């Protein structure tokens, strides 16, 4: 197979490993069920969800959204640098994404603490049960993603990093982008709609 054919084939393939895509599709299915549960319950008791939403800090939610979108951009730039063989630049991009992901997690913990310290009104317990479960599961995904980004940063630092590492870096990037997309949907459902 010629070098051109290999390059064309690589350009057509999905990034990462096929098993990763099965995991991501499964994860998206689970979150799709979460979104359906949220929507169904919102439809049953819209006043409860409006009252609960009034207790959320829109600024923290919007800041977290901006932080995750920016971190996804850093991961995309890091992967582009790695594909070009610029592993020092790639490492800097992954470290920036790690810092932003850590900000997201810290803000989420601050937000949780505020809700718990406020002593959630019993009338709001159903709303906040969904809020804590859905955003908590997402936070676990963020923490797993931070571990992946840390692996990516180390992989870009070690001697001998090369093209064979790209599948791992692509997989980590795809996972992080999934985490970002899930948060955007959660933010819209919980904070805005």
Give an account of the 3D structure.
The model has no long low-confidence stretch (mean pLDDT 85). This protein has helices at 3-12, 18-44, 46-53, 58-83, 87-117, 125-157, 166-192. Helices cover 84% and strands 0% of the residues. It is elongated, with a radius of gyration of 19 Å. The termini are far apart. It is mostly helical. The longest helix has 33 residues, at 125-157. The chain contains 7 helices and no strands.
What labels would you give this structure?
193 residues; mainly alpha; elongated
Beta percentage is under 5%
Distance between the termini: 52 Å
Give the number of DSSP strands: 0
Radius of gyration: 19 Å
pLDDT below 50 for ≥5 consecutive residues: which ranges?
none
Major sheet characteristics? none
* Structural class by SSE content: mainly alpha
> Can you count the helices?
7
Helix content: over 70%
Order of helices and strands: HHHHHHH
C-alpha geometry: elongated
Chain-averaged pLDDT: 85
Task: Produce the secondary structure layout.
Layout: H1 3-12, H2 18-44, H3 46-53, H4 58-83, H5 87-117, H6 125-157, H7 166-192
Helix pairs in contact: 2-3, 2-7, 4-5, 4-7, 5-6, 6-7
